[in-house]
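2024-03-11 09:14:02 DEBUG pipeline.ingest accepted 1 chain
2024-03-11 09:14:02 DEBUG pipeline.ingest length=200
2024-03-11 09:14:03 DEBUG pipeline.predict start
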Amino acid sequence: MPSDSSKRTWNHLLLDLGEFVVELVKVVLISLVIILPIRYYVVQPFYVKGASMEPTFFDHEYLLIDEISYIFQKSERGTVVVFRYPRDPRQYFIKRVIGLPGETVHIRDGQVSISRPGSTEENILDEPYLDGAITTVGEVDTVVPSGSYFLMGDNRGASLDSRIFGAVPERYIIGRVWLRAWPLDRLTAFKYSDGLAISY
């Protein structure tokens, strides 16, 4: 028959275990309350699939998408965004903003040019993020509808983008690329200056 002291020790162990479980549940609940809103409303992970954004982003890179600031500051030309594919919203794509609402996008002879709303003057788009050997294939003359964006991949020969499926309505855009988190040797935070993604 166990002694009173061993009963007390056993009771203390059970009490300690119970307190530990209660504290663990509190930590998990508090973590979920903090992490879930951030995960679903502030920053979203994105895994790059395919070569359409090379050399800026490569297959299997892991990115964090800034959703919250996108609500308050709309896309500028050059911003890299993640969006739901309008023809199948279960799929997510990553592309760069080329044409803004109301502009006319012209693609011919391997070059992209933009006409501002109300103007017929074509201004050749300076695209320093493109590999020097890349030319933009296709022939396009299209007005970007209000509330939509003309999006293209940086690897123009291997990108399914607005040249094929047209301008993307803003409601499909999730947010802009904020951080390349993987691989670690390419860890980069992005900010946007004059519409271009630059690392800092």
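2024-03-11 09:14:41 DEBUG pipeline.report Residues 4-42 form the longest helix (39 residues).
2024-03-11 09:14:41 DEBUG pipeline.predict end
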